[in-house]
Specification:
8-stranded mixed sheet; alpha/beta; 8 strands; about 15% strand; elongated; Spore Coat Polysaccharide Biosynthesis Protein SpsA, Chain A
Amino acid sequence: MSTVLYLVLPCYNEEECLRDTAAKLKEKYAALEKAGKIDGASKIMFVNDGSADGTGKIIEELYRSDSMFCGVNLSTNCGHQNALIAGLMSAVSDADAVISIDADLQQDINAIDEMLEKYEAGCDIVYGVRNDRSSDGFFKKITALGFYRFMHAMGCHTISNHADYRLMSKRAIESLSEYGEVNLFLRGLIPTMGYSSDVVYFDVKERQAGVSKYTPGKMLRFAIDGITSFSIRPIRMITLAGFIMFIFSLISVIQTIYEYFVGKTLPGFASIYCAVWFIGSLQLMAIGIIGEYIGRIYMETKKRPRYHIESRLWRQ
């Protein structure tokens, strides 16, 4: 029996590439169905994450043109992770397996074949892992490498060079739905679920149209907690202030020690000066780190919904 496969694509201001993406995926689905790998009831789902351009209209056009396409419109921009969750939860009732992929299709869609093979072999989760980062700029390459190393050092067992290109079985997604936290970081959460998993390697392609929505600022916030929130921004500002003061303290300490040895400072001044700078900056950093955890507790206790669905474009 063929697999009912749903493809979920979070979309935010993707009007420049969406039609081309839809055409390539439609062709891919036709090939998979002809090869008997997926069922004719399989669908391609676009999740409109409160786009400000014509993305929503294009999704509606695709939906009306072919029953293979369906869509979910969120009432406002909720962020990539929440849009992805909205798509997964909308698809799980009808799908045997769901693959999430970016709307720009820089992730090679030919890896879907191998993902399905591993799913048929018994894997509930199959991670798409990029072969290398040769297509990235120097800054992104260095920060990405540092990010994964830092996450591993902190005890978060993410899959290196894996974004959100993955296959999940129905039971894996149903289990994911039991996680109620607001602060979602799926790349760290899903590997903890314990289901049988494997990886598929792929090459990253050049973006055909539009620009990346992950600016350096967005990548930094995502590396911190996956979702930005203005309610804890002052706490992060304190953390940043503490870090800046710590850097200045190191510079000042070096200067003070130098002046001490060349006899330009009063006895006892160096030790007091260094102590004040070090202790003050470390205290600010400590308060900021504690504040990060308090901020997350604050957000979790609100129990606000992750997203609101404005409309669904769906037919059997």
